[in-house]
Amino acid sequence: MNVVEIIERKLDQLLMEPSNSGLINEIGVLLYRMKDWKSAELYFQKAYQLRPKNHDIVYNYAAVLNVQSKWKQAITIIHHYLELVPNDEEVMEKLADCYYLIGDYHLAEIEYGKLAKYRG
């Protein structure tokens, strides 16, 4: 079964379970893997609205924003993720990178500093 068929099956399931955040997230992951960033973002955003404390969903939402260069939006979601998973070095670095990419070098320096302290 190819990815499109898998997505079609999951969309059929979604019709019967429209509030299933896990299923919505799975569809987003498949779309992300296909590099359909805009569609993946819509699914991750919906899953996030349904379950904002699920760290996998929050991570995926931040990742799709980041890959689309939506750094200001990603920063907000990354902060939320780090409230849920405070010691994720990869995400701490992505936060600093996002600040750097929007030109906020002061906050980037602060976040890189936190990361350096954490890594010891």
From TrEMBL:
Domain of life: Bacteria
InterPro entries: TPR-like_helical_dom_sf, TPR_rpt
Positions of TPR repeats: 21-54
Keyword Acyltransferase: no
Protein's UniProt keywords contain Disulfide bond: no
Keywords: TPR repeat
PROSITE patterns linked: TPR
Pfam families the record matches: TPR_19 (PF14559)
Name this protein carries in UniProt: Uncharacterized protein
Phylogenetic lineage: Bacteria, Bacillati, Bacillota, Bacilli, Bacillales
